[in-house]
Design brief:
The protein is α+β, with helices and mostly antiparallel strands. The protein has 27 helices and 13 strands. The strands form 4 sheets. The chain has a 6-stranded mixed sheet. A 3-stranded antiparallel sheet has the order 9-6-10, with helices on both faces. A two-stranded antiparallel ribbon has the order 7-8.
């Protein structure tokens, strides 16, 4: 007789190869329940996941739910995958959507970014040696670039990518790519012959490329008979528990015997600076700031290996005050009216690291230093300079910020002078370009963008009190109905609008709701409000005449002028 303790488990546990999961997602066999949130990971999270996969580290268990003949939940395809249409998936993903979407997009070459492995970072050609994972500089080995939607972006991508960058989406044809790469090296007169190089890179392939297809993800599968109530409970539980062990927790354990209690320090910091709570600042960011001040590096390896209890004691207070001070400055001077509009959380680290040095200046010298720090912020945002390699970028910027911001001497960080700014990038950018999107919202607030309902300048209090948020100027439903376009999500079609005004707008043509708002608010007041949002509303404007293309071109012209004002740079036309 089989006892209850020896009976079959409720869950069916089967490892699935990554290539199999990608194929099943593409074939619409695996999909998402419609209640799942949208894909929100940025490129950095995907890079880190790829690093874990090729290093064959654990990346967590997936939870799937088998679907039978009866309808359980409305389902949808993964972002970038073929639409389900009439196809009913055989399994729904309850936990693992972000990971699977990131891997699907990276391995199939869809989405807003493309991912690459720099194969030379994984080998030592002179020693005929394939490096172990702990010897690989993954900040250089795994990178991403935005899809080249403009000549400027294409040029920037070309400058970042070299012959040794292998597209992750071509994982199934690595050998063909390798033949071309080795032919290129040998044709340029390299000291090693093709046979030697191919042997080395094929060993590298077996160690680091093959896992992109063969990696086995642990999958727990709920049977199709699982009650819907149980599925809901499981899903809710998964989304409110289970914080992973991170560097802060590891270092807390390390330094406690040395008399430094990081947990107590962090609780005290949150008590002293509410902004750390409001902006969900990770305590690890404070450690990165301390590491910058100590070693000029924000790299994870340096935080974990180099920082000492003495350095934390010396720099913790300055780092906390610096991050809180930067947030306060961004709120008061750079239009950051809500935490979700912070373009890059990583920017707080190098800016916070130099904050204490600015505070040591004479009062008369602080104002120009703050202005330079703000210019660095705007240039970093609108050049999207922290989209990839943010840890390395923070270190490089801090080295220059120490002299340039504090004393006005030396070379400015590269975003201030060296990186291209393109108007065409802004024209085609969607709200998925988080830094540009958030930067534009902040920029509008700095120009005293007015509340549509009251005509008063926006403040953090007013944004929360009257439910001001980003909404479409040309309603999405209107554009789909009249113009048949799917370009409603361009960031130039967004501005900060209160809930009551957005209810007036609904799915109407701009000319129609413009007329209604004129009657409700008055022509003079409305014209002032629209102008403060960089929207031209005269009788000849694209906005007043329901011409989406003209509206975008007109608004781009105004937004470009605003960006040039805060960056001190001229945007290129392409």
């Amino acid at each position: 007789m089989t006892s209850a303790y020896e009976s079959d488990p409720i869950f069916e546990t089967v490892p699935r190869q990554l290539s199999n999961l990608v194929t099943r997602i593409h074939g619409r066999e695996v999909a998402l329940p419609d209640f799942q949130r949208d894909f929100v990971w940025d490129a950095t999270r995907t890079e880190e996941l790829i690093q874990s996969i090729i290093s064959e580290f654990p990346v967590g268990t997936l939870l799937l739910w088998k679907q039978g003949d009866g309808e359980k939940f409305a389902s949808r395809s993964f972002e970038g995958a073929p639409e389900l249409g009439d196809k009913k998936p055989s399994e729904l993903v309850l936990d693992g959507q972000q990971r699977l979407t990131a891997l699907y997009q990276a391995l199939t070459g869809v989405g807003d970014e493309r991912f690459y492995l720099k194969v030379d970072e994984f080998v030592d050609v002179q020693l005929d040696y394939v490096k172990e994972f702990y010897e690989v500089n993954f900040d250089e080995a795994v990178i991403s670039v935005p899809v080249a939607a403009s000549k400027g972006q294409a040029k920037k991508n070309a400058e970042l990518l070299g012959a040794s960058h292998f597209p992750v989406s071509d994982v199934g044809s690595f050998d063909d790519w390798l033949d071309e790469y080795v032919d290129k090296i040998t044709s340029e007169g390299g000291e090693h012959n093709g046979k030697y190089l191919k042997s080395l890179y094929r060993r590298m392939r077996d160690k680091y490329i093959v896992p992109l297809r063969s990696y086995g993800l642990p999958v727990l599968t709920l049977p199709e008979t699982t009650p819907i109530e149980a599925v809901c409970t499981i899903f809710e539980t998964l989304n409110r528990t289970g914080k992973p062990l991170g560097p802060f927790e590891l270092l807390t354990a390390r330094y406690y015997p040395q008399g430094v209690n990081l947990r107590d320090l962090w609780i005290e910091a949150q008590g002293n600076y509410k902004a750390l709570i409001d902006f969900k600042v990770d305590p690890y960011s404070v450690l990165q700031t301390v590491c910058l001040r100590s070693y000029g590096s924000a790299q994870r390896s340096d935080v974990l290996k180099k920082l000492t209890a003495v350095e934390i004691s010396d720099h913790w207070s300055s780092a906390v005050k610096g991050i809180a001070g930067v947030i306060d400055m961004l709120q008061s001077d750079c239009g950051l009216v809500a935490p979700k509009w912070l373009p890059y959380g990583m920017l707080l680290i190098p800016m916070g690291a130099v904050w204490g040095d600015i505070q040591k200046l004479e009062p008369i010298d602080r104002a120009p230093a703050y202005e330079r720090l703000q210019r660095f912020f705007w240039c970093s945002v609108f050049t999207t300079n922290y989209d990839q390699g943010a840890n390395s970028q923070a270190g490089a910027d801090y080295v220059r910020l120490k002299e340039w911001v504090v004393a006005g001497e030396g070379s400015a960080p590269e975003a201030v002078n060296d990186l291209p700014l393109s108007a065409s990038t802004l024209r085609s950018a969607s709200v998925r370009r988080k830094a540009l999107y958030c930067g534009l919202m902040c920029l509008l607030v700095t120009t005293r963008a007015e509340d549509f309902h009251t005509g008063q300048a926006m403040t953090p209090y007013r944004v929360g009190e009257v439910q001001i948020d980003s909404h479409h100027i040309f309603p999405k439903a209107y554009l789909a109905r009249v113009e048949g376009t799917d370009s409603a999500e361009l960031l130039l079609n967004r501005t900060l609008i209160d809930a009551e005004t957005n209810r007036i707008i609904r799915d109407k043509a701009p000319s129609q709701y413009l007329s209604e708002m004129t009657a409700a608010y008055g022509e003079e007041k409305l014209e002032s409000v629209l102008s403060s949002h960089a929207i031209k509303s005269d009788s000849e404007s694209g906005f007043a005449n329901d011409c989406y293309r003209d509206f975008l071109d007109e608004r781009l012209e105004t937004v470009v002028q605003l960006i040039e004002g805060v960056t001190g740079r001229s945007l290129r036309e392409e």
